[in-house]
Amino acid sequence: MSSTTEVKIYKSQKKVLKALAKAFYKFTLSSNQSHFHVALSGGSTPIGFFDRLAGKYAQKIEWERLHFWWCDERCVPPDDEESNYKLACDHLFSKIDIPECNIHRIRGEELPEEEAKDYAKRISKMLNHRGAYPVFDIVLLGVGEDGHTASIFPGQLELFEEDKICSATRHPLTGQSRITLTGRVINNASMIVLLVTGAKKARRIAEIMNNDEAAKLLPAYYIAPENGVLVWFIDEEAGAKMK
Ligand code: 6PG
Q1: Which of 44, 70, 149, 177 to mutate to test the pocket of ligand 1 (most atoms within 8 A of CB)?
Q2: How does pLDDT run across 125-164, given as a tens digit for each residue?
Q3: I need a labelling partner for 237 at 20 to 30 A (CA). Which of 102, 104, 201, 226 fits?
Q4: If you measure from the C-alpha of residue 32 to the centroid of ligand 1, how many angstroms do you get, rounded to a whole number?
Q5: Atom 16 in ligand 1: which residue has the minimum CA distance?
Q6: Is 48 in the pocket of ligand 1 (CB under 6 A)?
Q7: Mean pLDDT across 81-86
Q8: Kindly report the CA angle at 71 between 43 and 39, in degrees rounded to 5?
Q9: pTM, whole model, 2 decimals?
Q10: What distances in angstroms separate CA 28 from CA 25, 31, 36, 167, one per listed residue?
Q11: pLDDT per residue over 106-129, tens digit each?
């Protein structure tokens, strides 16, 4: 684990999501930056976080200051049930007052290689850079049961070495095309949040936190912001096997 790592453990998933929404709100208050660039993930865990933002914080957050991007997208149209963009729309954007031009989706309906290049250009144009790579203010990631994060799966660790901003990739089991930010861009963020809940994730979390040999095969093990902070938001079930 990098030296700037913080691990926050809560009793239940509900408490994790509440705490994350509060931390997110406070983060937006803590800086006078005119714009924040936030990269979201898909999967089921962030749903409660989106719901909380769309509820308690809908009127409190200055949404026009926030720009939303994605860490990864499934290559499906934006109205497909599998779309990470649709998930965030259904649970957050459709319920808050945010300018449409602040939402920067990955176009899953386009040719993956082409869209990866185009999305990278859009990111490059709008974000500040540190070294050769753009800097997201917050990157929100999950961890899959196989140890993947964003759409970087086991067996694709080269995506941490790659010098592109985005890459087209594939889910190794389903073969579904994906587009993902690469490891260098993720690790260039100012803050990375790893949101992980549930007993099914306990083994992977323990491998990563305990620095087990097995963790070296897991993409999530390589999440380590070079100049930023890494904060784990986990529940007791996910943290149950940690030493
Ligand atoms: C995706 C993701 C992915 C996700 C993890 C965790 O589009 O599938 O962005 O990396 O964050 O698979 O997903 P759950 O929250 O569903 O466990």
Answers
A1: 149
A2: 999 999 999 999 999 999 999 999 999 999 999 999 999 9
A3: 226
A4: 31
A5: 43
A6: no
A7: 98
A8: 100
A9: 0.97
A10: 5, 6, 8, 29
A11: 999 999 999 999 999 999 999 999
